Amino acid sequence: MRNPHNETLSSDRIGGKPAGTSAKEAQPERKCVLTGRLDARGELVRLALSPDGDVLPDALARAPGRGAWIGVNAVDLAAAVANGKLRGALARAFKGASLSIPADLAERTRAALTRALTDRLGIELRAGNMLLGTEKIAQGARSGAVVWLAHASDAGSDGPNKLAQAWRVGEDAEGTGLRGIILPLDRAALSVALGRDNVVHLALTDAAAAERVAVPLRRLLHLLGSEPDTADAASAACEAIDTKGK
After folding, report:
1. At 218, which helix (H) or strand (E)?
2. pLDDT tens, residue by residue, 61-84
3. What is the pTM of this model?
4. CA angle 177, 179, 181 (to 5 degrees)
């Protein structure tokens, strides 16, 4: 049974059912201070300047005051911190303000984005927008209730493939690329984030919730330098990270 709510979802909403309009195309663009490249706001990470002059990651891009955007991966960010390139770029962006850039900024940024993602997943679980467990997800998928499907990075292949098949059946989408994604979090991290034992598979039943989850997930994947990689490929590399990016 096709879920009519899915028809409004973006084709770029990570792990969700494709629709006609790209959310990435609709987003305002920002310029990376390191490369000068323009990209969708949701792909880049904002760095904010604290009142004390500390440069800190702003995972959800909501901190007040001046900010600067970076669109490089964690390895390149760490190198830019070490060789002074980031300091020079931020000095221009922050118009000569006194700056204190932590040597481990890349790791702090990864941790902040990961925390933003796990916090959001926890919020959606408490709000009643999430299904956990293979049987519940399969039942919801076959009934057309699932709008977003994801799996732990150590999920293996059988579970993700079976749930993807149930999802395609429920959406009358056999023969399409509809599938779940492998998150950059293993089952231990997901279990801690959601306060449940052995969380391997999870699904969202609300389109707005899926869009909210996609915000920190897209930024985290961009920082990690991940290429799109679907759950159907988990049998070849279950450690791969999936995204269609936000």
Report:
1. helix 207-224
2. 999 988 999 999 999 999 999 999
3. 0.83
4. 125
